[in-house]
Amino acid sequence: MQKNTKQSPKSISDLTLDKSQDKGGHAAAFLRLCERELGRSIRKLHDENLDIGALRADGVFVRKNKGHPVFDFAGEFHPRKSPLREEDRFKSLAELGLFFNFEFGPPATARFLDGYFTPGNLSRAERVELRKKLVKNLDRVFYTRLRNFDKFCTQQNASFAPISISGCRGWRRTSVPEADVQRLMARSAEIMENAKVLKSGRSSRVVLVEDFPHGPAVLKRMVPRDLHSRIKNMLRPAKALRGWRFANGLVLRRVPCALPLAFWTRGAKGYLLTKFVDATPLRVLLRSNVPAWNEMERAAAGEKLAALLAKTVRNLHNMGYSHRDLKPSNILVELKAGIPIGVYIMDVDGIRAQYQPVPMSKRAKDLGRMAAPLTPFFGKEDCFIGRLVENYLGWSAAKPDLVSQLSNLVRAQAARYSLRKR
User: Fold this and answer.
1) What is the pTM of this model?
2) How far apart are CA 246 and CA 249, in angstroms?
């Protein structure tokens, strides 16, 4: 009696690849097959002159039938009388190409495009030329979308609404009523003085708001440090607005950070309200050795933490963002049974958007600043930085020259930051 090998469809946005769990390589092989077969499926629809619009990863469902992927597409198909234009084809491929590039690296995007361009009467040179054109189009779409995110955050839409209170400018999530924000604004001075302080510096103060109606929240107040900062704020968006914009950008691209709920500015002061993340600051973890690990547990935790931090920072850099202040107080670690299972990037108002691929020097600066305080805690410096760089490079870690180049840059930045802290 044959087993029924059909499975219920699953969105391709839920596809993940954990190499530590994929002992036989079956999941990786199925993922590679999915990438090519999805390209072929979309090509068949296009060859039938069906315009399927801008396909998103959460609108494509895959199920396994006798070991082969079968795809279903959400949305409407629009039949055309004439062959589809090149622009219409690119529109359908752009979102999925970005998804594969972001989640699994450029080789996944290349396999997806190979699947799309393989059938038909195109020569190899024509296929290569079309693929180059599409990859260039993906970069343009991706970085243009990031550049236009300011407009997205300052327009009425399903997720955001302006705060219409005299004397202030700001935006909020539609899930947070304006009355709740208004009550919080009226008590902001009292909260800043009496609430539990999570972090305090020369230009900012972060406190915990435990009695917020929508659950515990974190309120950050930002003030200009000096005249130079005031002049800079006149020439560019306020720090609270930048924090709101970049936090929403990270949430949109599934980089773990605190969910922004609202922001507002009053005069020179800016406030950013985010959801409270129940996790341990890495600074606390390093100072208090919580939990008390033995040598073997410490090595396992260091390996896991290197993988989590590397993936998160890589995703941040792939968006064209550089953080510039990745220190232990700006990283939260989620623990389960004493083992790190997740990390969160905080203090996102200092992020700089490159709107182009982040240069290697800036990547090394972020990694080095993050690695400097961790290397003595998680073992030998060369060992931890090596694992961090290998996890960061991911698909391209097989290139020894690239690993060596980035490792040397990260070590130099880590040493520089360590000397500056003494």
Assistant:
1) 0.67
2) 5
